[in-house]
Amino acid sequence: MYSGIYNGTKKHQEDLEQVLQRSWEAGMEKIIITERLYSTVGCHPTRCLEFQENSSSYLTALQQVIQDDCKKVVAIGECGLDYDRIQFCPKETQKKYFELQLNLSKTFDLPLFLHCRNAASDLAEILSKFPNLRGVVHSFDGTIEEAKRFIDMNFLIGLNG
């Protein structure tokens, strides 16, 4: 998008540097992304089949990245559930490896950056097993009642455009 191309059509000149500069000038202190900024560590729900191939070494690798870059890793994620794209990973697989990643949040005392697409009920049910976690439920597309449930569990809500 910042390269000026949207849906295959050039809409404007590349402007990532200008967007970042405006952010810093407006008082932004941190942005979660890679390189000179900050990052999250986790397995996106649509990629959980990668986790399944060798769950213990995959989990160990995630832990190692967090330990090696502890000053740059600011959250666990983007993990969660995405039931709109189960062609990439079945629901049960997503749920299993989502739960494993929640333990990383507890171990490293990091907030969660959660993905929740068409899966609010299951996401809330799993989170209820892990009290005292915090973070953002991103890509939220549920109802106001479901949003209130996450807020009551100490999570913020992130909406897509």
Automatic annotation (TrEMBL):
Residues passing through the membrane, by range: none
Protein keywords: Hydrolase, Metal-binding, Nuclease
GO cellular component: cytosol
Keyword Nuclease on entry: yes
Domain of life: Eukaryota
InterPro entries named in the record: Metal_Hydrolase, TatD-like, TatD-type_Hydrolase
GO molecular function, one term: 3'-5'-DNA exonuclease activity
Entry annotated with the keyword GTP-binding: no
SUPFAM superfamilies, per database record: Metallo-dependent hydrolases
Protein's job: Deoxyribonuclease which catalyzes (in vitro) the decatenation of kinetoplast DNA, which are circular DNA catenated to each other, producing linear DNA molecules. Plays an important role in chromosomal segregation and cell cycle progression during eye development probably via its DNA decatenation activity.
Recorded family membership: Belongs to the metallo-dependent hydrolases superfamily. TatD-type hydrolase family.
Name the UniProt record assigns to this protein: Deoxyribonuclease TATDN1
Organism encoding this protein: Asbolus verrucosus (Desert ironclad beetle)
Lineage: Eukaryota, Metazoa, Ecdysozoa, Arthropoda, Hexapoda
